[in-house]
Write a structure and sequence with these properties.
With 315 residues, the protein is α+β, with helices and mostly antiparallel strands. Helix content is 32%, strand content 16%.
């Protein structure tokens, strides 16, 4: 199928998403039609470094993550031998949380056109960043069982309520503890149960590990069954994870009112939308509501003026 503007609008028309014409042009300009098809067919896609890694983004994020880990743990991780003071051998690895404001490179990772095209396709133009973290995974014996990120009781909604982007900062393969997917499972709209959750010998025989080089970008629908193999090779598997959610959902990290003005000023207005500045938080009375709605509307209006896209009302 050729993903023209007309096809995208026809396929997604039932969702009533805003800005489909603009989105189709972005997808076409980036040459990402095949990755949209992967999302629809398999529930996940891997974008290669030549598209996903502008200006050595992954290499710069890797060095920054190693620096932050050194500050937080007291020891710079060794990519060849592995280990972060014994904390990198869990199923998910040594997790470093709340990275967005640690370094400017993470702003770039959020504003990467490839990531935004796919996240917007899944969750709309008012999608927001819920969390930005990194994982450093060393050798271990425990595999990460298959699950969905939607985390609602079955049946799950057909539309994506959330999606995740993972920047591969080192090579991904089975020996390195790669992420694993069950292709097409997003269409089943349910969570895996019992023996369906296990991977490897005697486990779910539909699970497929991701094989991709450093610099790639992995994006998947929140309903897609996924987990990870344990790493058996020496060294560390390093990745940066951006959880993106529809703005009506509760986010993991709180960004409202916390983004410095200079950070907002140096990014396009969509950065304000992505970092929750256009979301109206809970209020305590009518006066508080007016103030919070007015603040959010400033960011929404700036984005709408810049993009020509009208977002859903935030009240």
């Amino acid at each position: 199928m050729i993903w023209t503007k007309e096809v995208i609008m026809a396929e997604a028309a039932y969702t009533h998403e805003v800005g489909l014409g603009t989105l189709s042009k972005e997808i076409s300009d980036l040459g990402m039609q095949r990755y949209i098809e992967d999302l629809d067919t398999h529930g996940y896609t891997v974008v290669p470094p030549e598209i996903a890694n502008p200006n050595g983004l992954a290499e710069r994020m890797l060095e920054t993550c190693l620096d932050i880990a050194a500050r937080r743990s007291g020891e710079r991780p060794d990519l060849e031998r592995g280990g972060v003071r014994g904390r990198a051998n869990s199923p998910v690895g040594y997790a470093m949380k709340a990275l967005l404001l640690e370094d400017r490179v993470f702003e770039e990772s959020l504003m990467n056109p490839a990531l935004l095209a796919l996240a917007t396709y899944l969750c709309g133009y008012d999608v927001v960043l819920s969390s930005l973290s990194a994982s450093m995974k060393g050798p271990g014996e425990t595999r990460f069982r298959l699950h969905t990120d939607t985390r609602l009781p079955s049946p799950l909604p057909t539309q994506a309520l959330l999606c995740k982007g993972i920047y591969l900062l080192t090579d991904f393969n089975r020996d390195n503890g790669s992420t694993v997917f069950v292709p097409g499972s997003h269409k089943w709209c349910r969570n895996p149960v019992a023996s369906e959750t296990s991977i490897g010998d005697g486990g779910n025989d539909q699970a497929v590990p991701v094989e991709a080089p450093a610099g790639s970008l992995l994006v998947f629908h929140g309903n897609t069954w996924h987990g990870a193999y344990n790493r058996v090779a020496p060294g560390l598997r390093v990745s940066v994870h951006l959880l993106m959610v529809r703005s009506l959902l509760r986010a993991t990290e709180e960004f409202i009112g916390r983004i410095p003005q200079d950070v907002l000023d140096r990014n396009r207005p969509r950065f304000g939308i992505l970092t929750q500045q256009g979301v109206v938080p809970p209020y305590i009375d009518k006066e508080d509501e007016r103030a919070k709605v007015a603040r959010a509307q400033k960011f929404v209006s700036a984005f709408e003026k810049d993009s020509g896209i009208q977002l859903p009302a935030k009240r």
